[in-house]
Design a protein that fits this description.
Layout lengths: L1 H17 L1 H18 L9 H24 L10 H10 L3 H20 L1 H7 L9 H35 L19 H19 L7 H22 L2 H13 L14
Helix pairs in contact: 1-5, 2-3, 2-5, 3-7, 4-5, 5-9, 6-8, 7-8, 8-9
């Protein structure tokens, strides 16, 4: 019995990792509706609850579309480079390391970032015209920034694929559009979305629900470092990217100072 469980984890878990991204795009919606179904029935007319669920659906549809477009409309067909690197680094031990470092952490993050939804659905406080509107605007702005950044990245990758197919050299660095002002504008958009969703929890007197957004941001620091290390690993792009690092904000889009130009 234990041997069967071991084999299932060792050989089945890599397949689960392939599906963690599409799973991530829908899990918060399921959690949000769970809280809605188990909320106090007398508070179901609360506008804040309906707005949060509506925003959650917009976020989910946006991220799902971005994932499917990136993967050429196939689910789990391509292995994430981070997991491939992990397997190469840790060899035969990679499956259990990734189980805790990726799978368990991902689920802790999903629960954490969904805490504002619990707070909202446990509250009977009416809509706050100022601060709930601010939270809503922040959520929409975060979704919009991430959508634009992902589209610009997708167009950049597609154009490079076409250049290679035509026998031309690819462009080594995306530094136009939002990527001119931030090295990771898509990450910034996601963080703005989750922190803005947390503001709804603050508005009902439960700031502790921001813990999930903080945990998510800390994890994104690690993801950002991995991504930039990969960019620097290619010799033909290393010097160009180092200059890009020097001149460009990491997350928050920011204008370059005059002396940097």
């Amino acid at each position: 019995m234990l041997k069967s469980v071991y084999k299932l984890l060792k050989y089945g878990f890599p397949c689960v990792l392939q599906l963690i991204d599409p799973y991530w795009t829908v899990a918060p919606v399921l959690i949000g509706h769970f809280y809605r179904l188990h909320s106090d029935k007398t508070s179901l007319d609360n506008a804040r609850q309906s707005v949060c669920l509506g925003l959650l659906w917009i976020w989910s549809l946006r991220l799902t579309h971005s994932y499917l477009r990136r993967e050429k409309w196939e689910i789990g067909a391509r292995e994430d480079w981070r997991y491939a690197d992990m397997r190469a680094r840790y060899g035969k031990h990679w499956w259990w390391i990734s189980f805790f470092a990726v799978y368990v952490v991902q689920h802790a993050m999903l629960v954490g970032i969904s805490l504002p939804l619990y707070s909202v659905h446990a509250s009977k406080q009416p809509w706050n015209a100022l601060w709930d509107s601010v939270a809503c605007a922040g959520c929409l702005l975060g979704i919009g920034v991430a959508a634009v950044a992902d589209t610009q990245l997708h167009n950049f990758v597609t154009a490079n694929e076409q250049r290679r197919a035509a026998g031309k050299l690819p462009v080594l660095l995306l530094n136009t559009g939002l990527w001119r002002y931030s090295r990771h504008p898509n990450y910034f958009g996601e963080q703005l979305w989750w922190w803005s969703l947390g503001v709804f929890a603050v508005n009902v007197g439960q700031p502790w629900a921001l813990a999930g957004a903080l945990f998510n941001s800390l994890c994104m620091v690690g993801v950002t470092n991995l991504t930039e290390a990969r960019m620097l690993a290619r010799p033909e792009r290393a010097a160009l990217f180092k200059e890009y690092q020097r001149r460009t904000s990491v997350w928050v889009p920011w204008f370059k100072s005059q002396e940097q130009e």
